[in-house]
C-alpha cells in the first residue's frame, strides 16, 4: 500500500481560504469532488509526491487551461478535501489529511491506492 506523506506545517503561514469546518465535512460532497478523475489525480499526487507542505497548480504539470484548474482546485477546497492559502498572487494547496481521516477513516488510503488510467 502506498505511503501517504504528511509534511509538518511551517510557521508563519497565511490564513486558509474559506473552507468547511471539520464537523461540516459531508461524505457525499467529498466523494462528489473526488468523482472527477483529474481532481482524484491532484489529491493522489499531493498525498504521495508532496515535496513541500503545499504546492502551486504549476507543480502538478497538468496540461489544462488555468481557468479549468482554478475550477478544480476550488471544488476540492469547497468540498473540504484540500486547504488553500494565498501567497501573493498564487494559491497553494495541500490535503486536509488529519481532518479527512478523522471524519472518514480509510478514505485517503483508498485514494492513495487508486491506479490512474494511463489513457
UniProtKB/TrEMBL annotation:
Supply the name of the protein.
ArsR family transcriptional regulator
Origin organism lineage? Bacteria, Bacillati, Actinomycetota, Actinomycetes, Kitasatosporales
Which Gene Ontology MF annotations are present?
A: DNA-binding transcription factor activity
| Classification via SUPFAM superfamilies | Winged helix' DNA-binding domain
Amino acid at each position: 500500500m502506498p505511503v501517504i506523506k504528511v509534511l509538518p506545517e511551517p510557521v508563519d503561514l497565511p490564513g486558509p481560504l474559506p473552507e468547511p469546518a471539520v464537523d461540516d465535512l459531508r461524505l457525499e460532497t467529498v466523494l462528489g469532488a473526488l468523482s472527477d478523475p483529474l481532481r482524484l489525480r491532484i489529491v493522489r499526487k499531493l498525498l504521495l509526491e508532496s515535496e513541500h507542505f503545499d504546492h502551486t497548480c504549476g507543480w502538478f504539470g497538468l496540461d489544462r487551461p488555468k481557468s479549468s484548474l482554478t475550477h478544480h482546485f476550488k471544488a476540492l477546497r469547497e468540498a473540504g478535501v484540500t486547504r488553500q492559502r494565498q501567497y501573493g498572487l498564487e494559491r497553494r494547496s495541500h490535503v486536509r489529511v488529519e481532518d479527512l481521516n478523522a471524519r472518514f477513516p480509510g478514505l485517503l488510503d483508498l485514494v492513495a491506492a487508486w491506479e490512474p488510467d494511463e489513457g
